[in-house]
Each structure stands twice: as C-alpha cells, then as structure tokens.
Amino acid sequence: MSEGSTAIRVLLVDDHRTVLRGLEWLINAEQPQMEVCGSATTIAEAMRICVEQKPDVVILDLDLGDDDGSHAIPELARHAAVLVLTGLRDVETHHAAVAAGARGVVAKESEPDLILKAIRKVHAGEIWLDRLGMQKVFSSLVAGTATPKPPQDSIVASLTPREREIIGVLSANAGAPAKQVASLLKISEHTLRNHLTSIYDKVGVASRLGLYEFAQKHRLR
Predict the structure, then answer these.
(1) Hey, how many other C-beta atoms are within 10 angstroms of the C-beta on 198?
(2) Cβ atoms 108, 19 nearer than 8 A
(3) For residues 85 and 115, is the Cβ–Cβ distance under 8 A?
(4) May I ask the CATH architecture of the domain 148-217?
C-alpha cells in the first residue's frame, strides 16, 4: 500500500466469538494495510456498525443461528464489499451469495494468507471464488448461452408437489429466516437447502429473491 493511503477497514459478522477473535487477530496483524473496525454477531448489529463505521469490506458468515446472513447481502453490499466466509461447501449457495451482491466467497478452512488475499481482491473490486465455485459460475454462463431455455410452462410442470409446497411456503414467508421456513415445512435447514438447490436449477434462478419473483409471476402460492 502506498504512503498516505488508508487501511482497508473490515467489519466481521459471525455468531461464533472464537471465530471473530481469530479473524480480528489475523487482520489486525496486517496493520497498517488493513484493520478491523468492528465485529457483530447479528445482522441488526452489523447494519448499525456498517452505518456508523463505514467499513470497506464486510466478512459475513451465512449461518448466524436465528439469522440468515444471505438475506442481508444486498443491504450490506450497499455500504461495503461483502466477502462471505462460510463452512458450507454447497456451490449453489456460493453462487447465490454472489448473485445477491457478495463480491466473493471463501471457505472457513482456508489458509490465513488466502483469506487475506480474498479481502484485498474484493476491496479492489474483483470477484473472489474458489476454483470449484468459479467453474460453476462459468458453466452456468456457458449453459445459458449455448442451450435454449425450456418454455416456462414446462418448467412449472416439472416441479413436484413437494417443490410446489416449498415454493408456496417461501412465497408466503418471503422475509423469514431459513430456520423458520424449514420449521414450517417440518424439515431440517439442510434438507431445505437441498430442495432449494434442485428448485433453483429447475426454474433457473440463483436466490430466494429470484424464486419469489418466479413464484409471483406463475402464481405458485
């Protein structure tokens, strides 16, 4: 970093305080190039700190207990570059996070130097994904340009009764955390994610917002 430039200010959002302490130590060790300007364990707290501290980068865990971090990505991205730090290996979840506005996704088990590199990359305006995630994004783009999309009526007809039920519950509870939606469906969050991965692939969307818009358009309520 050149003389006179300011440090990359990072906000940490994770419901595990041990993770927060580890990340804080890692990032603050890079001073004066980067520093932690705040940490939060809930989305509400993260939003408040974001407005007050104006971070350059927000490191966000998607699974925040009662909070679903993915829902906060669009709002957080209005204030800073969002880097998702997650233990989830579901590539579709990573893709959906980027589609929602995240600048990148990095695994929690990544080497410390890789996490620091990801922070610098997203701060510079670049997209950061691991190799598998990047391949998935490119494959989706290629498939979208090379293969004609099936008619919308055929897509709707391909949905199973259970998938229609899931879409209906999601539409009726658009702002609800994944944990609450799973409870209403009497399934686990993991099972809900698996269903959503299949549904996203069928209807050609990458997030709950896209699925909600599809459901409203086709009256799947």
Answers:
(1) 14
(2) yes
(3) yes
(4) Orthogonal Bundle (1.10)
pLDDT in tens, 3-59: 445 899 999 999 888 889 999 999 999 999 999 999 999 999 999 999 999 999 999
Query: How is domain 8-138 classified at the CATH fold level?
Result: Rossmann fold (3.40.50)
pTM for the full model?
A: 0.60
What is residue 84's three-state secondary structure? strand
pLDDT score for 132: 47
CA terminus-to-terminus distance, the chain: 53
The answer to whether the CB of 212 falls within 8 A of the CB of 221 is no
pLDDT in tens, 88-134: 666 677 777 888 888 888 888 888 999 999 999 999 988 887 654 44
> Using CA atoms, how far apart are residues 57 and 20, in angstroms rounded to an integer?
15
Q: Do domains 8-138 and 148-217 have the same CATH topology?
A: no
- Which position has the token pair 């990458």? 206
What are the residue boundaries of the structural domains of the chain, listed by start?
A: 8-138, 148-217
What are 169's two structure tokens?
A: 């519950």
